[in-house]
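so im writing up the methods section and need the HTH cro/C1-type domain-containing protein record in one place, dumping it here so i stop losing it
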Amino acid sequence: MDKRYSQLDAHQQLEQRRQVLRSIHEHPGQSLSEVIKILRKELRLTLQEYSALTGISPRVIHGIEHGTGNPTLSTAEKLLKPFGLRLGVV
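--- predicted struct ---
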């Protein structure tokens, strides 16, 4: 967890995840880069933690978040899968 934030207990973490996922589901037209940035920032993950969780390098994640990356479908799926999300067409 990003050290800029205080540690959350298990109940607070679960509620935070639910709120983030609810927000993403309520706004289905967001770009992949927006969703990735929201997931990582709102769940307080560092680039290294998100990288370890997904198997995608921190450099690639950073590029996607800033709109300079061009991820493959496989990479996009790996970034979304740990949160129970899938890429779709809107």
